[in-house]
Amino acid sequence: MKIAFAADDRNATTDAVQAFLAEAGHEVIRPATSVLWPELGAAVGKAVADGEADFGVVMCWTGTGTAIAANKVPGVRAALAWDTWIAAGARKWNDANVLALSLKRLSPDVAVEITEVFLSGIAPDEDESANIARLGEMDEPRR
Ligand SMILES: O=C[C@H](O)[C@H](O)[C@H](O)COP(=O)(O)O
Predict the structure, then answer these.
(1) Range of the domain at 128
(2) Which UniProt keywords apply (predicted)?
């Protein structure tokens, strides 16, 4: 798949996630021209919303800033995940299309495991019609 990736810092965890994406055969694009988290989150979100990437992975110290920034882009459903259950649930129940990870709090192994589960996750099926309806509700402006 085509994955948009960006991080606002570099360490063993960001290196491990990028290495995993390449080794798993994904085509990785880096749409961000900035390492500032508001901008890179938006750039990855836009790449996903515009269909330039199938999914996005954003990383910052906490994962929160990049998740918020990505979620400002219409059509983006970014999920901050800290374990595999959260990551799988984000796909299954929220149809998340961007994964946000803490590069400070996740070990390389755990970050890779979460990324792998997220990208291999299943989207909501007909059994999840209630959640699909809830996702649709968010397409309407809230203010
Ligand atoms: O949510 C924000 C992120 O955790 C940032 O990585 C953290 O705030 C550090 O950002 P900066 O280096 O821009 O101060």
Answers:
(1) 2-137
(2) Isomerase
